[in-house]
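Input set for joint prediction.
Command: fold jointly, output tokens.
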Amino acid sequence: MAEKNDGTVTVEVEKRLEDLFREDGESFDFLEENDDSEDSSPVELEVSPDFLEDNSDLEHSPPRELEETSGFEEDGSGLDQSPLKELKTIVLSIDWEINDEDMTRFVEQVETLKLVYENDRVILLFLQILGSLGKYVKANKGNSHPNAIKVLNSVYTSLEKVLLQKDVTAAEKEKILLVEVQRFKDLEEQVALKRAAAHRKKDTKIRQEAEANSKGKEKDMAPIEKSRPAGIAEEVVSRPDMNRMAPHEAFAYALEEIKQMIKAEFKALRAELKLWREGQ
Amino acid sequence: MEYSLGQEELDVIEEVLQEDLLDLGVNCVFLIDMAGNVIANLDNGQMEHDIYSLAALAAGNFGAVSEMAKIIGEDEFSLLFHKGEKESIHFSKVMADFLLVTIFGKETSLGFLRLKVAEAVGKIKKTLEP
Amino acid sequence: MAFVNLKKKEVQVKVVYYGPGRGGKTTNLEYIYKRFNKRIKTEMVTIKTHGDRTLFFDFLPFDIGKIKGYDVKIQLYTVPGQVKYDSTRRLVLRGVDAIVFVADSMKVRREKNILALKNLQKNLISYKKSIFKIPLVLQYNKRDLADQGIPVLPYEILEKDLNTQLKAPSFEASAMSGENVVQTMKQIISMTMRSLQRDLK
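tokens >
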């Protein structure tokens, strides 16, 4: 095969390779290990034929990551006999994969547990928060706020602690609940902000598209701006410091807030649907 | 023989990776082909990983696991994910020839990440499809 | 398949060193790495067994800088040569742009060289590539063994066994001492870039 000079690329490549890989006549004894000051040995990933044995420790050690993110009790004391067993299975499953089936099971299980604990206000409140979160994630899936799952895990962990740990006093239970309620409300604010930002972005896009199409239709954009869901502004309100309230007042307030939040959610959803229809 | 991707296509891909994954809080995300070539890569500014070596290993790893799936009678595995103490790594196929690799920390839920990855993959497919 | 990034003006090229087990594929890369890693600023990745046999692949990436306005990134891979790792070899071959076939000059390895070349042809076909069309260079390694009294195949025999139809450039080499290692690599890179050049506009 005759090699022709195919042009400047070959020349350029050959010149570059010559520059990079000239051997200079300097002595280099590859056969002996160099005593270069920097470590120039290749990064080796060695696979031991006994790697199963090497990793046997890992197989038996508790998965610390789960404890840190969701604080699950690994010894399962009392969980096997507890009504929470099924819910825990679902929550663990959601950690790996979020799908319609598991989210439906989650919401249904929460409803079932509400009946079991209908006389325990603390547990009921936990379950109401979980139910709300479950419905939110189920409805929004990938559009959910990233913190929604984190809060769900956190609330579940606290619920498990409150139900299963024997040495938790009533006051401590309330305190744990209040922390989770606050977390839930923080999430609610974040969701509202996210929705507001998304609407602004959408309005801007619609306006830009309309301007690109025809200047004469600008006046049609005004109704869309005005019909931004009023519910969003209402959700972001300043709240009284629940730490200053008496515990029973704090519960009642939290319960009422959750009811209001669920109402606001539906209102916002309806407004979004309206916006979408108008945008069509 | 070779293939190429232009400015517009790569801009779209990078935007998807930024909005759907990086903004979610993942540390690093890269799109590669099954030969180990890096198509696009983005990180949170704090990563100093050797992306080219990672890409070669990721392609090899995914390829090896795909072969294992066939041997045991599966078309493919639905999840390839390695959990680390601080960082974990998730792989997702994009059509037959590409791979989306995501490196994320403890604060990101795997279940939620998989939802976002699926969304991102859907958008990238539209750009890559002829 | 080489990837051309028109946005970054970058080309990534995959060269695979193929051949029978213990033929010197990894040694080729190790030589290049140890000799030039500071100049070409690279790290080498190897996945091997405790017995120093390549298990999955070796990988050595480096830039050769701008050619016709494109940053050219070369990625050298080796495959495991042992017969039992055929699936792995096929995996590593995916998207290959060029081959360096490292043959073992030892007389006792004559048959293994031929089998390995046939194996390469078969695995390339599975990717709809032809051994006759892909940029390919032959390296007859371990020539230095003759000085130690170990029987090696004459150059003519190796050419007849392996290069009658391919008519590819060939080099006698010694990867351990570095003889013709760089020349082999330069040749394959040149050939690959030549075959891509019409698209580097």
